[in-house]
């Protein structure tokens, strides 16, 4: 599709360039041929004046010396001019074709990347949605065909179905959130934000999960104000804290630090959980990527979208995000946001 579009765009570039080039060539040809004739007349007039002005010969003798314009010389000059212009236009056509094809590729590249990203997003989403839907459908069909289904078994099936529906709801919420931050402009309603206020809201959202696992969250922050999206930054901290709590053992500790470094706000979330293997670190920000079975949704409940969303938020704020992790020793995620 994009190859055809690139060729069509190149063709339009060529049409526009050649129309301009041929039009200018026509004007140049007309002007120069007129100048050739005018130059010939001026030269003849000067020669006549220098030769006859002093002697004043009779009119019939003057006519013998006045030669008509040599049309062959003028025509030869016009032909040579036409050949040069055609040669130049042919060169412009060839060069413009190559340059136009290159520029068409550069023009269409962002659109192609966006469409490819959308196609991958749809494909990945469809795959992730299909799995719980298939499990839910299979469970209900088996139960429906079971003639000896008891009330207890029916309640178990309903309970499992509700869990799958909750899982689907969580996935759809994350997909909508990712799509929101994946827009070209994202959520760029930047206002002056207090990092302590952002932390306070994020902690309130993550507190139930932390209490459930009896995990304490140690906070060490320096309050700073900078331009950003409070809504997006709260989402960022919730994602990082949620991951830290989910992959930490019960009765452990998660450390959240925020401090100012030069012209940046450095935010770090550290846990003592299961960690991430070195081979998985380069891919953890990819959409739907789950490092291994130990960090899969069967263990911690997730679809591998959190860190992808977190990276989108950080990029939206022109910041950077990095991960330090060792298996069975924990993970530390560091976010640096510029102070604007």
UniProtKB/TrEMBL annotation:
Reactions catalysed, as given in the entry: ATP + protein L-histidine = ADP + protein N-phospho-L-histidine
Highest rank taxon of the organism: Bacteria
Keyword DNA-binding: no
Pfam families the record matches: HATPase_c (PF02518), HisKA (PF00512)
Keyword Transmembrane attributed: yes
Cellular component, GO, one term: plasma membrane
A single BP term in Gene Ontology: cellular response to phosphate starvation
Protein name as annotated: histidine kinase
Originating organism: Candidatus Roizmanbacteria bacterium RIFCSPHIGHO2_02_FULL_38_11
């Amino acid at each position: 599709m994009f190859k055809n579009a690139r060729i069509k765009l190149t063709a339009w570039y060529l049409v526009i360039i050649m129309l301009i080039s041929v039009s200018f060539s026509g004007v140049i040809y007309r002007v120069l041929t007129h100048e050739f004739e005018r130059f010939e007349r001026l030269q003849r007039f000067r020669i006549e004046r220098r030769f006859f002005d002093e002697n004043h010969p009779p009119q019939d003798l003057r006519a013998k010396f006045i030669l008509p314009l040599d049309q062959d010389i003028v025509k030869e000059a016009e032909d040579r001019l036409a050949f040069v212009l055609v040669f130049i236009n042919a060169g412009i056509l060839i060069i413009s074709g190559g340059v136009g094809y290159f520029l068409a590729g550069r023009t269409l590249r962002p659109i192609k990347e966006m469409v490819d990203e959308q196609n991958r997003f749809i494909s990945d989403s469809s795959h992730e949605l299909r799995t719980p839907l298939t499990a839910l459908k299979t469970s209900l069909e088996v139960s429906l065909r079971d003639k000896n289904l008891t009330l207890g078994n029916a309640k178990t099936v309903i309970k499992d179905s509700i869990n799958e529906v909750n899982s689907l709801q969580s996935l759809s919420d994350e997909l909508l959130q990712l799509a929101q931050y994946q827009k070209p402009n994202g959520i760029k309603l930047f206002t002056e934000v207090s990092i302590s206020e952002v932390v306070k809201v994020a902690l309130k959202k993550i507190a139930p999960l932390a209490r459930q696992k009896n995990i304490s969250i140690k906070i060490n922050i320096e309050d700073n104000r900078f331009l950003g999206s409070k809504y997006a930054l709260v989402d960022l901290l919730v994602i990082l804290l949620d991951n830290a709590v989910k992959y930490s053992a019960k009765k452990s500790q998660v450390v959240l630090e925020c401090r100012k470094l030069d012209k940046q706000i450095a935010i770090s979330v550290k846990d003592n959980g299961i960690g991430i293997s070195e081979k998985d670190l380069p891919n953890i920000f990819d959409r739907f990527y789950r490092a291994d079975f130990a960090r899969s949704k069967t263990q911690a409940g997730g679809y591998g979208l959190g860190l992808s969303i977190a990276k989108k938020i950080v990029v939206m704020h022109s910041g950077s995000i990095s991960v330090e992790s060792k298996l069975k020793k924990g993970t530390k995620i560091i976010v640096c946001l510029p102070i604007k």
